[in-house]
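# nightly structure sweep
# worker-07 picked up a monomer target from the shared queue
# config: single-sequence mode, recycle default, output format = structure tokens
# input follows
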Amino acid sequence: MTVQRPTFVLVPGAWHLPSTWDLLRGELDALGYASRAVKLSTSGPDARGGLREDAEVIRAAVEAISGPVVVVAHSYGGIPATEGAAGLPSVQRLIYLAAYFPDVDESMYTLHGMPDPDSAEGLFPIGSDPRAKFYADVPEATADLAVSRLVDQLHQPFADRVTRAAWHTVPSAYIVAEQDAALPVELQEKMSSRATTVHRIPTSHSPFLSRPAELAALLDEIVKG
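# output follows
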């Protein structure tokens, strides 16, 4: 009997659109995996809502797939993936890629040990040098394209707290990006202690752009586990 391969549902981080996964999707396709990349509600020119809306986008993407699913979440995407994948029997595994890994009643703010903001209205600024922050080891032309595709990001989902945590009932893996300048490696290591397995990749924050083939091979290894 052949075992059905899972479909990857790919969740981007803040400020990023589904196209950020294009190189990795090509590598996954070469390995025989189907994939879907989601557009989060709180990112983009039409940004709206908060954590709940982002979680519902992920939930809808999973429910639209027949067969097993592996959810891969990057950076902020780990928060809505934790919420949105809860209670879905088709989700076989959660993979956190240099991502936030919250428990119930935690937010991005609490994971950084910070108090809730006085207000979470409006947009959250991306900072003066997103290239150095996100794409330090990404080839120049690829990094230029990635920077040009960055979009607005609402502040609200960073302050919203998780109400359900899928990783309590679904096997999880954490991939630490060892040269990350965006999400502190020390915090990644701390959060990774919650995962079923921990893996590492010697890249900055965006290995799907700097080493897509290596990342695809690691995802394949994790899935075959």
